[in-house]
Structures are given as C-alpha cells and as structure tokens.
Design a protein that fits this description.
Layout: H1 2-20, E1 30-34, H2 37-47, E2 51-55, H3 70-78, E3 81-84, H4 93-99, E4 106-109, E5 121-122, E6 132-133, H5 144-161, H6 166-191, E7 198-201, H7 207-212, E8 216-219, H8 231-244, E9 248-251, H9 257-267, E10 270-273, H10 282-286, H11 291-306, E11 345-349, H12 351-355, H13 360-370, H14 375-386, E12 392-395, E13 399-404, E14 407-422, E15 428-436, E16 446-450, E17 462-467, H15 471-475, E18 483-486, H16 491-500
C-alpha cells in the first residue's frame, strides 16, 4: 500500500511542478534539499554561502521509517539539487527520484562509488515494535575516515553541476576535510592504543567505525532503548555480561532512565551513549553541536571500554562460522549432477577490474575484516587467482564460446561428472566437469566449473578451469581460478556482490 501511495504522490507532484513553472531563485544561489543530518551537515560545509541547504527529515523522525509526503516530494522537485546518502538508508529515494523531473533537479548520491558491507537486521525498535533490515549497511558516516569520502563525493558532484562555483566549493570542502582529518587522526591515535578491542552495542550502526579503527562491534538483541527487558532476557544478559566481564553497553541517546537503572541493578553493567548521528535537534545545533563534536563525544564514550583491558567478547550466538554449503561443508549425498544450462549466459572476466583498481576497495575490506594479509597482499593473491586472457565466455545449454581479444573459440560440450575436493582448512568444494566433443578444441578441451553450489541451480558467478591435457591435470590447479560475473554488471556492482558473499 505504501508503494501505491508513493506513486500517487509522485504523480500529483509532477502536476504541481508543471503548474508552478519552477520556484528556484532568480539569482545564482543554489537551493538544495538534503535528507537527514549527516548529509545536511556535509553538504552545508561544502556549499557555504553559495546556496541554501535545507534538511528534509527533522530531528526526532526515524530515518529508516520516513515516508515523504506530497509536500516533501514537491519540495524536492522545486529544489535545484537533492542530496541523499544511500538507498539502503533512505529506502524511499529510488521511487521519488523516478517521480521527479531530474532534468531540473540534480540528484547527488553521497556514497557514489563506495562499496558497502553486507547489511543485517538491527534490533532497533520503532513505533511498530519491529527492527529494520538493510541489504547493505549504509552507516558509513560514523567512520570519520569514510565521512571524508562522502564530503568529496558531494563536492565533486556539485562542482560538475556548477563549474562556475568550483573554487568556492573546493575551498569550503578542503577546510572541512582538514577538520575531518584531525578527527580521523584522533580516532586512530586513541583507538590504536586500545586495551580492549571489543565494544557491545544495542544499535549495530558502528561496523565501519570498528572496521577502520581496529575494533570489534558486538551486538545484543532483544533489548529496546525505551522498554525494560523481560525477566528471562535480563537473566540471559546477566549471564552473558558476567561471562565476558562487560562493563558498558552502548545505547542511543534516547535510552530511558528506567532501562539504564534496570540493567545496572540486575546485571551490573552501565549504559553509555554512542550517538548514530541520524539526527541532531535544532536546539543542539544552536548550542554549537555538530558532526565533529558528537563524534568526539562518541570517542570519549568508547574510551571507557577501550582503556580497560578485556578479553575477546563473542556474540551471544557464539560467533561461529556457519557450516554452510557455500563455506564448503556438506554431505557427499547432497552433491548432484548438473548440466551446462546452469551456467548459461554471457559472462565477463573480473580480472580487468582488478588490474584497473576498481576492486581495490574489496581488498581493503578483506584486510580489515579477515586480517592475515594487507590489502596489497590480498590484491596480489587474487591477481594470481583471477588472471586470464579470456575476456568473455558465452554459454548455452550445449556450447561455450571463449572470447580472447578480437578472437573467439566456440565448441560443443558434454557433461562428464563431478569431483569433490578437500582443502587444507578442512572445508570442501565440488568441480563439475565438461569435455568438448570437437577434436580441435585445444586448450579448451577440458573445462571445470566451481561456483560454491553442489546441485542443479542457476549460478550467479563461477570460477572456471580449462586446459588441453586432461581433467586430472586441471584438478591439480588450486591457485589460478579465473572468475566470471554476468556481462550486465559494472565493476562496482561486481565488487559489491563479492562483499555480499
């Protein structure tokens, strides 16, 4: 029903816009509408005196649940520029952008070009008593390091739209980025000396902050900021808190005094505030509070945990790696024969995106999430893995065409079974084997697919091995596994898919 209402509002706004004949100011001042506080603050810092920057979602409104009214959409249509963070945060934006005239309204996505972490359900209570879920985690502004990228993206998009204001926008942005650099340095210096790397939070919005400054965010569930936990949940929390010696649990600033007192009395833990900065009241802004001052307060709150030695804190579910088929854990009986139709489609090699740097964000994430290697070492490892001169592979239910530069090699294939491999880590994989029926197939005579699936299913990507010697010889290859994704995806979309898995 909400979607139908939105589309109806969109149509009404188009009519309003057509009748209004535009309301932009006649001078060269740019009228800008932004969605929620961090986007507003970053845009205002870039724009300075060159425009009017307005905040659409007022303080006290839950950003995740916000639904624009007809008036809100009209406000966007009448602006020169509309700035939002990411459709995983402002979920309503894609439909609204479809309904407004983007020839008149310049739309700026602050996370343009940024890869996001996979999302997860957050136990952050709303009026309806339910949590919310993101396909990808949008909370990048809570890392000062990534906030700089948001500012740069806003700056670059505004400069592209208004080149005559380039000097002002760039000077304003540089001055603010200098402040963000100082904040980033303060976070780095303080948290690099952390005696306890783990912090426990009720709102899991701080994954990027933790990732970029060497911490580990641990979430608790079933506890609301404004409602006392049940006796059974209190008992569970008390056991968990005592097991790991947890001294602080971080809530949002709106946690009730009753919840704090109950948890302190029953479990011995203290509540402190980590502000997710989704909004800031006008009163707070009038007092001089801003993104930087609130993030400094967040750092001071984190220090209460990080300045005290502590042990590893596992999530309540134990934090164990899921024993899934995708991770290589399955019974032999679950493996089934597959046909070439599972791989049918037009596919592109990911290797060019590694070479040109498009996937560099992936290696940075891997280094911070997994450790063990630096980003450059991960890139080198995947350079060996992805390397190939086959740019594209076009597959039908019977044929494969290998495209190398301006040449192509197409052959007919038959399925010849599968082979289960066991790796050093103890997990396993399955390769599905195909053989060309053409006598002249050469280096493409023997082909093996691996795609983390073990039974018939349409694949989303695959690793492939091919050669002209034998299937047995291919099974020995463990270091080079050219990887292919659908032709229609951009390099950034492929990078996002990689992070999702």
């Amino acid at each position: 029903m909400k979607k139908l209402v939105r589309f109806g509002l969109g149509l009404s706004v188009l009519l309003l816009a057509a009748c209004s004949q535009g309301t932009s100011s006649q001078d060269d001042t740019v009228d800008i509408v932004t969605t929620f506080y961090p986007v507003y603050e970053f845009t205002k810092q870039v724009v300075g005196d060159e425009g009017n920057v307005n905040l659409l979602i007022e303080a006290g409104t839950e950003v995740h649940d916000f639904e624009p009214s007809a008036k809100d959409i009209a406000t966007i249509q009448e602006a020169d520029v509309f700035v939002y963070e990411n459709e995983n945060m402002e979920t309503w934006v894609p439909e609204v952008v479809e309904s407004v005239d983007t020839d008149k309204v310049h739309v700026v996505k602050a996370t343009e070009g940024m890869l996001l972490l996979p999302g997860s359900e957050e136990d952050h209570d709303h009026a309806e008593g339910e949590g919310h879920e993101h396909a990808y985690d949008p909370h990048v502004w809570l890392s000062p390091e990534r906030a700089i990228t948001l500012v740069e993206n806003i700056r670059d998009s505004l400069v592209a739209k208004y080149p005559e204001k380039k000097d002002a926008f760039e000077e304003n942005a540089a001055a603010y980025i200098e402040k963000l650099d100082t904040l980033d340095m303060k976070y780095s210096e303080t948290l690099s000396a952390a005696k306890q790397k783990y912090f426990v939070t009720q709102h899991t919005a701080f994954a990027y902050l933790a990732l970029d400054y060497g911490l580990k965010q641990v979430s608790i569930t079933g506890v609301a900021a404004d409602e006392d936990p049940t006796p059974s949940r209190l008992a569970e929390l008390a056991e968990y808190i005592n097991k790991y010696g947890i001294k602080y649990i971080y809530f949002e600033e709106n946690a009730s005094k009753s919840v704090a007192e109950t948890l302190a009395k029953e479990t011995g833990v203290q509540l402190d505030v980590l502000n997710p900065l989704e909004s800031l009241t006008q009163e707070a802004m009038d007092k001089g509070e801003n993104y930087i001052s609130v993030m400094e307060a967040n750092l001071a709150a984190l220090e209460k945990t990080t300045s005290q030695a502590g042990s590893e804190i596992l999530p309540e579910d134990g934090g164990e790696t899921a024993q899934t088929v995708y991770n290589g854990y399955f019974e032999d009986s679950a493996v089934k024969d597959r046909t070439l139709s599972d791989y049918a489609g037009n596919w592109q090699s990911v290797y060019p995106y590694l070479v040109d740097g498009t996937l560099d964000q992936v290696w940075d994430y891997k280094a911070k999430l997994k450790g063990g290697m630096t980003a450059e070492e991960y890139k080198s490892y995947y350079d060996t893995g992805y390397k190939t001169d086959v740019d594209h592979i076009n597959i039908t239910d019977k044929t494969m065409e290998f495209v190398v530069g301006d040449k192509s090699y197409k052959y007919t294939y038959k399925y010849v079974g599968y082979k289960i491999l066991t790796y050093k880590k103890g997990n396993r994989g399955v390769r599905f084997l195909f053989e060309a029926t053409d006598a002249d197939a050469g280096d493409y005579k023997y082909v093996q697919f691996s795609d983390h699936n073990i039974a018939p299913v349409k694949t989303g990507h695959f690793h492939i091995y091919f050669g002209g010697e034998s299937q047995e010889k291919l099974l020995e290859e463990l270091e080079n596994w050219p990887t292919y994704y659908p032709d229609g995806l951009t390099g950034l979309e492929i990078g996002q898919e990689m992070l999702a898995h």
